[in-house]
Design goal:
This protein is α+β, with helices and mostly antiparallel strands and about 300 residues long. The chain is about 40% helix and about 25% strand.
Amino acid sequence: MGHENNDDAAVFRIDGRRVLVQTVDFFTPVIDDPFLFGAIAAANSISDVYAMGAEPILGLAVAGFPTEKLPLEVLEQIFAGGATKAKEAGFPIAGGHTIIDDVPKYGLVVTGVCDADAVVLNSTARPGDLLYLTKPIGNGVAVAAYRAQTERTRWGIGRKHIPAFDDAVGWMQLLNRDAARAMVAAHATGCTDVTGYGLIGHLREMCNGARAGARISASAIPVIEGVRELMAKGYVPAGTRRNESAFRSSVELRAGEDDLTLCCDAQTSGGLLIAVAPENAKLLETEAATTGTLCSRIGEMTERAGTIELVA
């Protein structure tokens, strides 16, 4: 399995029973703390393996670093943050590659394994399946507000504390491991993780792959506290606006414009978007609850192929 349905990772059969699941992801800093940046970037990279129902077993680091602008201690801290998150996930970072670049970049190549019949795809959900989300959305808006405050500091203007960003950092560092194990136990029919294309964009990929539609409720979607207030002040990143423009034609909007913007918010290390048959929904909720994992029911798949209904 490769890129045919824009799935989260490549899948390669290695014998009659097992498959390798492999992905790569990296990006520029979302925070000026190098250790936390490394941890967030690693959690984001690992998430694609979890979204496929696999367990990660090996990582390789990929980095770009401006050696003439920043001390190497910064890069060491980025690597340390990533290594800490990989250790939490239960695998080593065994090597990698670094280049000199104008802007810091960091991420991982992650390899996972699982049984061939246990792979969870983003294209196999069915009409009538229920949809669950395992992290709140809005961290793109929170990061935009944080970056604006950082720019204020550069100009000698006082920096304001942003509680929503503090919450976003916690969610971005959180591994999707427990959510993935809950979905596997509940025999999920489909899954993807919510990242750069936002909730709507990744749900759209699920719908297109399954030749189905979806109905989601804005009031049921978890949102990081304080993000709506930040949006009202104009803190909406360019990536979110691009998503909104690109995916609006797929959405039948029966909620507010701000709800659509939030559902298009470009996420970093977002949660899993899980489809599960109604008879297994309680099992998913119970499995998630055993580890304190957020598992919010936000809607269901429908037979209206290619249409996402966003209701109030």
